[in-house]
Design a protein that fits this description.
This protein is mainly β and about 350 residues long. It has strands spanning about 15, 25-30, 35-45, 50-55, 70-75, 85-90, 95-105, 110-120, 120-135, 145, 145-150, 155-165, 165-175, 180-185, 190-200, 205-210, 220-225, 235-240, 250, 260-265, 270-275, 285-290, 295-300, 305-315, 320-325, 335-340. The strands form 6 sheets. It has a 5-stranded antiparallel beta sheet with strand order 1-2-26-25-24, with no helix packed on it. The protein has a 5-stranded mixed beta sheet with strand order 11-15-14-13-12, with no helix packed on it. β1 and β2 form a beta hairpin. Residues about 1-10 have low confidence and may be disordered.
Length: about 350
């Protein structure tokens, strides 16, 4: 367990306005920057306060000695302007990555993250861990999540959990001697997960975000990677009705990475993802779409290089987006929070 230190974060504020009748302004604050590599964010509201989580380490994966030992940080804010650290924890010899926040049906904050183990810079295994907090200040000791049945592969990463009623759902991905896997799981306690659906996959599917429509249908946005640069790197969009064993899946018109999305009251889907349009100068962008998976880019956040993994939250009439970027500091990344008027994303 790392020593916990409280600190308020100095921020840098930017204001930008578009021209014409749709005039608006938005802000971007740097809420964490210790000259390290801070990345892979999540953002929620819990008990009237705001929380942002992320991984901090020497670099995207390895430190100067070739070790991967990233740790999990959670920040708290009353207003989204001033932030203080409430958690800094890690596991010896394990790279703790992509902490994702959610609120359980019984009113606890849940922190889900992946633990990656390396040997000579080779990934040996991936294991999911979870922590809980009743007050946003004191967190339980990380414990391993349990799959039923246990997957054949040693590396299985449950990347995010979304709750609907008293059940939580998430998709794990893995690779190993049993081949590439993509599996939908259901949980009632955040620790034990029952398999619902094993997808037939080709290529390299991995990070998956799930959300729900008011009528109970489940939506999925799936990242694909194709290291040969072919068309199989396009993201996949899915829709399913309960019990979520049959899916309508289709390829999207763009590549996604570290993606999050949410559904507004009018059915509009807003998604945040990495844009790969310009080679080494990736951006974090906002997409507007619908339940049919028809998306278009509507906003580009100040970002560059190693960037993305947004957390998204509607606060009043604004969309708040946490994300990371190495803009101006190659190899090192800071955490940013953007506050964007929803009218700027409406297309009206």
């Amino acid at each position: 367990m790392r020593k916990l230190g409280f600190m308020f974060i100095l921020s840098v504020l930017f204001l930008t306005a578009c021209k014409g009748p749709g005039l608006y302004s938005y802000s971007v604050e740097r809420i964490w920057d210790r000259g390290t590599h801070a990345a892979f964010t999540s953002l929620i509201e819990f008990n009237g306060k705001y929380y942002c989580s992320f991984r901090e380490g020497y670099s995207h994966i390895f430190d100067e000695n070739g070790d991967a030992e990233g740790h999990v940080i959670v920040l708290e804010s009353k207003d989204g302007d001033s932030w203080k650290q409430v958690l800094d924890t890690g596991l010896e010899g394990i790279d703790c990555r992509d902490p994702k926040l959610c609120v359980t049906p019984d009113g606890r904050m849940m922190v889900l993250f992946g633990g990656s183990t390396y040997r000579n810079k080779e990934l040996i295994s991936q294991q999911g861990y979870v922590m809980f907090s009743k007050d946003g200040k004191t967190f339980s000791t990380p414990e391993k999540i349990v799959f039923d049945p246990r997957p054949e592969n040693e590396s299985n990463w449950l990347w995010r959990v979304t709750w609907n009623g008293d059940k939580g759902y998430g998709v794990s991905y893995g690779s190993g001697t049993a081949g590439r896997t993509l599996i939908l799981y259901e949980t009632g306690d955040g620790i034990n997960y029952r398999q619902v659906k094993s997808f037939d996959v080709e290529g390299f599917p991995n990070e998956t975000t799930l959300r729900f429509l008011p009528d109970g249908r489940m939506l999925a946005m799936i990242r694909y990677d194709d290291y040969n640069g072919g068309p199989e790197c396009l993201g996949e969009w899915g829709v399913s009705e309960a019990p979520y064993t049959e899916w309508n899946l289709k390829r999207m018109g763009l590549r996604v990475g570290g993606q999050d999305f949410l559904v507004l009251d009018d059915g509009t889907v807003l998604a945040g993802t990495r844009s790969y349009a310009i080679g080494n100068h990736c951006k974090t962008i906002i997409l507007r779409g619908n339940a049919d998976g028809d998306f278009q880019e509507v906003f580009t956040l100040p970002s560059d290089g190693d960037t993305s993994y947004p957390g998204m939250l509607v606060v009043g009439k604004e969309l708040w987006v946490s994300y990371y970027s190495t803009a101006g500091t190659p190899g090192k990344a800071a955490i940013f929070l953007a506050k964007i008027p929803l009218t700027a994303l409406s297309g009206v």
